[in-house]
Amino acid sequence: MIWNPGIEQADRETIRAVQFERLKKILIHARDNVPFYRDRMAASGFVPEEMTCLEDIQKLDFTVKTDLRDNYPYGLFAVPMDDIVRVHASSGTTGKPIVVGYTKEDLETWSECIARIVTGAGASKGDIAQVAFGYGLFTGAFGLHYGLEKIGAAVVPISSGNTARQIQIMEDFGATVLVATPSYALYLAETAEKAGVMDKLKLRIGLFGAEPSTEAMREELERRFGIIATENYGLSEVMGPGVAGECTCKKGMHINEDFFYCEIINPETGEVLPEGEQGELVITTLSKYAMPMIRYRTRDITRLLTEKCECGRTTYRMEKCKGRSDDMLIIRGVNVFPSQIETALLGVQGIGPHYEIIVTRENYTDKIEVRVELTDEENLDNFAELERLRNYIGNRIRTICQLDMPIRFVSPNTLKRFEGKARRVVDLRNQ
Ligand code: DLL
Questions:
Q1: Which of 218, 224, 413, 422 is most deeply packed, by most CB within 10 A?
Q2: pLDDT in the model for residue 95
Q3: CA dist., res. 396 & res. 348, Å (int)
Q4: How far is CA 377 from the centre of its chain?
Q5: With a 6 A CB cut-off, is 316 part of the ligand 1 pocket?
Q6: What's the mean pLDDT in 368-388?
Q7: pLDDT tens-digit profile of 8-31?
């Protein structure tokens, strides 16, 4: 089913016309209400009223995370505090959090975006959706929550953590949809298997997102839970989840293009790349009134897929993110994304799907070590088997990453499990 065929199946001209009309309006709103944007437009002589096409937006500077930090907490809000009905924040790793606000209308837009995505993934009225994202300042749980309610699903707002109880509730409440990060879903699968209840679960759909994951991870989750695992994408700065999500074809995430205008740029030069090329995703919000984001640099590396999807939706899709440009490691001159290492590791017989990438620095050179769990403790003393595994995994990593990496095997169940976004890379370079 398609939630909003009027827009999800619109032809290109209609989508661009809607985008153009909304873009002009939001740029005027931003200029008139946010000193940061007013000053920027004034400095570059940009006048939204004079725009003639969508591409005119390229004359404007990018907005970056530090712009949000510099305007902490409410400096980029474009409406009086009276009109704000919700605030979320994203902590990040350093410094002050970035704060985002929503008007009532923005919340309706948000639910609409999620309703389209979850419908695309096959969820509908009658589903029981267990939301295992953390409820709080994080946008994930509330975002999915209201969109799922909008389509008529029964939402179980269990939040993240307390993993044994999650499985109990999943079984007792007959959850059919699981909302989580892929890494937490993997931990939940492992816990359900250990509890011997996997065959009692009624799950049929996974709505996974909030962190990069690979096709290998999808296959692992689909196999273990016996579900269709779909992925969705978003970020707090532009709304939260709801920017894009996969349909059941699982060939890229359909973008809610009437709400988000997407560009792909060369992350080094800032140049806008031709359609279909891989680069950094830049998003402009077309209908977010509390806090418009103009040309926000997401740091996420992806490409736009422009062909029509088999599902009948016409909206552009974004490919699974390869990673964040700031997560890319440069090892002996070779660029490596953690997702490439994940692809090499998952599905290998004899090791589990959890892994850690340790990065250190010696004599000004970055070094990397990959830690994986053996599935069988006894193999820790079986040198022949360890050697066979080391060669096999080493070859896979070399094929995908063009690099040799030391591999360390550890006992089963010893690597850290995650209840939210996984941190697979342990960066010890500054120690
Ligand atoms: O993670 C919003 C979200 C919640 C999306 C739930 C999907 C589901 P932030 O905490 O602000 O917001 O983190 C945003 O997470 O820039 C990406 O780097 C990463 N991210 C989110 N979804 C995906 C995905 C939410 N499907 C940052 N694939 C983004 C890869 C993702 N990375």
A1: 422
A2: 74
A3: 10
A4: 34
A5: no
A6: 96
A7: 999 999 999 999 999 999 999 999
Is residue 285 within 8 A of residue 236, CB to CB? The reply is: no
**Ligand 1 neighbour 106 (Cβ under 6 A):** no
Residues 249, 191, 407: CA angle, nearest 5 degrees: 80
pLDDT digits (tens, 9 = 90+) for 313-367: 999 999 999 999 988 999 989 999 999 999 999 999 999 999 999 999 998 889 9
Distance between CA atoms of residues 364 and 221, nearest Å: 39
CA 176/CA 154 separation, integer angstroms? 10
**How is 378-413 classified by DSSP, letter by letter?**
GGGG-HHHHHHHHHHHHHHHHHHHSS---EEEE-TT
- Tell me, letter by letter, the H, E, C secondary structure of 148-186: HHHCCCEEECCCCCCHHHHHHHHHHCCCCEEEECHHHHH
- 296 near 66, Cβ under 8 Å? no
pLDDT reading at 94 higher than 80: no
What is the CB neighbour count within 10 angstroms for residue 106? 23
Task: Please give the C-alpha separations between residue 118 and each of 71, 88, 175, in angstroms, as whole numbers.
Answer: 33, 22, 15
C-alpha dihedral sign at 69, 273, 210, 396 = negative
Residue 327 Cβ contacting ligand 1 at under 6 Å: no
The pick from 142, 211, 262 for probing ligand 1's pocket by mutation, whose C-beta has the most ligand atoms within 8 angstroms, reads 211
Burial classification of residue 124, based on how many CB atoms lie within 10 Å of its CB (0-12 exposed, 13-18 middle, 19 or more buried): middle
Nearest alpha carbon to residue 321 among 428, 217, 222: 217
What is the number of the ligand 1 atom nearest to the C-alpha of 253?
Answer: 26
Give the residue whose CA is nearest to atom 12 of ligand 1: 235
With a 6 Å cutoff on the Cβ, whether 10 touches ligand 1 is no
Ligand 1: centre distance to CA 139 (Å): 9
Cα(211) to centroid(ligand 1), Å: 5
* pLDDT tens per residue, range 106-131: 999 999 999 999 999 999 999 999 99
How many A from CA of 243 to the centre of ligand 1? 10
Provide the mean pLDDT of the chain: 97
Length of the chain: 431
Q: Which amino acid is at 173?
A: F
Cα within 13 Å of Cα(86), Cβ side: 22
